[in-house]
Amino acid sequence: MSGKTHILLVDDEASLREPLAEYLTKQGFRVQQASDASQARSVMNAFNFDIILLDIMMPGEDGLSFCRHVREKTETPVIFISAKGEELDRIVGLELGADDYVTKPFSPRELIARIKVVLRRTNGGNGVTSGSGSIYQFSGWTLKTDQRSLIDSEGVTVPLSSGEYQMLLVLLSRAGQVLNRDQLLDITQGREAHAFDRAVDNQISRLRRKIEADPKNPEIIKTVWGGGYVLAGDVKTL
Amino acid sequence: MKHLLPKSLIGQLLALVAVTLLIAQGINIVLLYRGAQNQKIVEASVSAVGRITGEIERMNERRFRELRPRRDDRPRRRRNRPSVSTESAISVGQSRLSVVEERAALGFENMGITVLAVEVARVDRLPPDMINNVIGHGRGRQQTLRAVGYRNLPNAIDGYVLMSAQIADGQWMNIASVIRDRNPQLVRTLLFQTAVIYLILLIPLIWLGRNISRPLKALTKAAENFKPGESEPIEESGPPDTRQLIAAFNEMNDRVGAMLDEKDVMLGAIGHDLRTPLAALRVRVESVEDDAERERMVAGIGDMDRTLDDILSLARLGRTNDTAEPTDISALIETVADEFTDMGADVSFTRSGRITGNIRATLIRRALRNVIGNAVTYGKQAAVSVDKDGDRLVIHVDDEGPGIPDDQIAAMFEPFARAEKSRNRETGGSGLGLTLARAIVRDHGGDIVLQNREEGGLRASLILNLD
Question: What's the whole-model pTM score?
Answer without folding.
Answer: 0.59
